[in-house]
């Protein structure tokens, strides 16, 4: 039934130029340099590093991250963590409020078979659900998620953080593991102030806080400014993308992922259409008004996507224009969501395929 | 390796309320009514109907569409067409310029085994590639794609359409099959004028035009106004979505797909966070400024998505607000792209699971 889906798309030694498109490809040298550059920074500042696997979803890449010095990994759902546990990982942090019987049952089974599973919570409702499920079993480690400007999940104040930590510490079946921030980029001072206030209150209550986990790729090279953090989490840095260029984290030549596409139509002088649409590039804008950076054609704008078509406005381009049949290399706005669309990922060095990896944690149920 | 990915997510008789989230679900009664309503309209107006399978990607649903009276199906890529050929479909139109050796080879193999394969072309480059590959083989039927306002692919004028038709008719290995439009919604007069002008020029050249294929769900119930069309193509109508409501094609109660999500956090009075992010709802805006319609909470706005989180602004809501653990039914902006994210689709009637179908043509390579 899934013959097509898992068809061999390439093998080592093939030429990237001969691949069918659209297809994301990963430059091995840039990948290795990205892993090394960030790990070196963490080592220099004595910070534990916990890569988020959401960007690649491939156990072999997490293995490379740990081999470089990472202390554990970060997953976003239980089923992702299962894939990495199957591959031998023990220190896994799931940064999500786990709610509902199906997820709690899988979580408990996972906790029974690895040594370092940790989750987060930001409410008593979440903690009550975890406690009811883990009471009488091997205890689960729970960190308090704090909203330090990210405006997503998280307790809103240090007082709430300390209060929930105390609640976790007292709950059956749970162990308080520390605090975690989801910060707004470039807000090291605000993050540090939130953490220090929380730690002070925890100390007053006599509650130890083993982990202070900070996160994000855009602000990664400011991680050392959050002095109370014991570890940093980041995912996108391993591939990098157009948003990371804009945010100053990397240069265009640090982007390891390109979406390879073919020009399939040139309906008029100003328009090219490629075979990469929202099912290859995704519709993530990330603050841009177009859908990716076309390497070699900096004035080209991918103005609209349908599922299998990308429409490129060439009206601002000077010089030679892309022709029908030409292959384009596109740096996507957001690399993590592209990984989620493809069952396999092709790696290459200087245009020759080195390996093809199964994107094992793609599209999992929860 | 793929145990998780193809895990049993539900079985007939399960309660939708017990499913793990996020998860798209399809209402069987609405699905059947959507198929019936559109086919009845086509029958009433004597139009052949060719459903686009991109919306569901499930052979069993295409079988239901054909059982209701559809004359064939529409796919967007060769590998999708292979899945439906495997399921017994013979009349398949692929509405794409097929370029490049890997795609052409698969296309030729497919043409050898089904009777009614057809593709489109909008340039001599595409036609030359097809002709070189099909010369000396079973001929391939090729339609000319026309841009009648859709601003994607397609020849720009009736003169170009007639000229390319003549070029196809004269090409080795190819048969001219007709013309195809990708119209802007609500532009029946412009589409009809383009077609009539093309047909007149073809007649003057003595070239028969067996098929005139028009398309689109938003303008579907104006399809009879394009009097020269012999068939209409549409995909989204089978599930419907928020965009189709806005465009006047359907009402909220005609939307067969909901994304089921759980509230996992209520960080403050105005904010809820759900476990459906861009990996469930997709980032397709389709002209909206938020990411879906929350049934029962019409003032709630899904203002931002990360991969596994959706942030809902509740500030405009009156009355009771969603609580942590509550399950929400969300009508996505664009249903076709949601189908592409899940390996299986759950169907239900009045909240009880009726069947689970493999989304067999999801995420295929090209």
Automatic annotation (TrEMBL), chains A, B:
Q: Keywords for this entry?
A: Lyase
Top-level taxonomic group = Bacteria
Residues in D-serine dehydratase-like domain copies: 256-349
Pfam families linked to this entry: Ala_racemase_N, D-ser_dehydrat
Q: Which CDD domains match?
A: PLPDE_III_LS_D-TA_like
Q: Which InterPro entries match?
A: Ala_racemase_N, D-amino_acid_metab_enzyme, D-ser_dehydrat-like_dom, D-ser_dehydrat-like_sf, PLP-binding_barrel
Per the record, the similarity remark reads:
Belongs to the DSD1 family.
Q: What is this protein called?
A: D-serine deaminase-like pyridoxal phosphate-dependent protein
Native organism: Rhizobium viscosum
């Amino acid at each position: 039934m899934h013959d097509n889906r898992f068809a061999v798309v390439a093998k080592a030694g093939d030429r990237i130029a001969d691949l069918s498109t659209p297809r994301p490809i990963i430059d091995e040298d840039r990948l290795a340099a990205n892993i090394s550059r960030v790990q070196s920074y963490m080592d220099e500042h004595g910070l534990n590093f916990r890569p988020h696997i959401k960007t690649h979803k491939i156990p072999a890449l997490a293995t490379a991250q740990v081999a470089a010095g990472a202390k554990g990994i970060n997953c976003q759902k239980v089923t992702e963590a299962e894939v990495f546990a199957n591959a031998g990982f023990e220190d896994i942090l799931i940064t999500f409020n786990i709610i509902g019987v199906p997820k709690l049952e899988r979580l408990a089974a996972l906790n029974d078979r690895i040594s370092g599973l940790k989750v987060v919570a930001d409410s008593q409702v979440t903690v009550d659900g975890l406690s009811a499920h883990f009471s009488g079993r091997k205890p689960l480690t729970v960190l308090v998620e704090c909203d330090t400007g990210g405006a997503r999940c998280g307790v809103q104040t240090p007082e709430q953080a300390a209060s929930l930590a105390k609640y976790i510490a007292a709950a059956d079946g749970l162990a308080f593991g520390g605090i975690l921030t989801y910060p707004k980029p470039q807000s090291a001072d605000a993050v540090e102030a939130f953490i220090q206030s929380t730690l002070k209150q925890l100390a007053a209550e006599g509650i130890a806080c083993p982990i202070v986990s900070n996160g994000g790729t855009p602000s990664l090279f400011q991680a050392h400014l959050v002095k109370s953090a014991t570890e940093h989490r980041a995912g996108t840095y391993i591939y990098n993308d157009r948003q990371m260029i804009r945010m100053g984290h990397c240069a265009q030549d640090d982007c390891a992922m390109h979406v390879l596409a073919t020009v399939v139509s040139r309906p008029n002088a100003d328009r090219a259409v490629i075979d990469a649409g929202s099912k290859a590039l995704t519709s993530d804008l990330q603050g841009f008004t177009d859908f990716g950076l076309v390497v070699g054609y900096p004035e080209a704008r991918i103005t609209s996507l349908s599922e299998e078509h990308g429409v490129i406005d060439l009206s601002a381009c000077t010089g030679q224009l892309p022709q029908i049949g030409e292959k384009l290399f596109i740096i996507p706005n957001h690399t993590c969501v592209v990984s989620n669309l493809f069952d396999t990922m092709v790696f290459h060095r200087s245009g020759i395929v080195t390996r093809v990896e199964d994107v094992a944690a793609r599209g999992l149920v929860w």
